[in-house]
Amino acid sequence: MICHLVSRSDWAAGADGYRPASLRDEGFIHFSAPELVLETANLYYRGRADLLLVVVDPQSLTAPLRWEPAAGPADRGGALFPHLYGPIDAAAVRAVAPLPCAPDGSFTAMPTF
Residue 28's domain spans which residues? Predict the structure, then answer.
């Protein structure tokens, strides 16, 4: 499984096919491996109380998926991240759950499904 972080409002707005700004601006959708989600959330979304964690089955995607170095200011220790070069297929989504932050704004626990 791979994971995508998104605001509740952006996810709701994409009910007819979720296409985040990164797909338009960078050509792909950012994902993380499950073990890197909390690090990603703390690096880019600290303090956001409106995040959802979208869990996707990569085998069910129809757009190309490539594991590439981090796209952003932090090199993340050379870790590779899944980048989806097209929209997320609704049939590939396995779970959507809130990713709550702690009172200090940090993300410390993954949701249970």
Answer: 2-98
| Strand bridging mode 51-56 / 65-69 | unpaired
Owner of token pair 């870790």: 79
Structure tokens at 43: 């690096």
Q: Whole-structure pTM over 0.70, yes or no?
A: yes
Q: What's the mean per-residue pLDDT of the chain?
A: 91
Closest CA to 10 of 18, 24, 101, 2: 18
The tally of domains found in the chain comes to: 1
Instruction: Identify the CATH number of the domain in which residue 51 sits.
Output: 3.20.170.20
- Give mean pLDDT, residues 51-71: 94
User: Is 109 inside a domain boundary?
Assistant: no
Model confidence at 76: pLDDT above 80: no
In a domain, 110, yes or no: no
**Residue scoring higher pLDDT (35 or 76):** 35
Burial of 3 (C-beta count, 10 Å sphere; 0-12/13-18/19+): buried
On whether residue 111 sits in a domain, the answer given is no
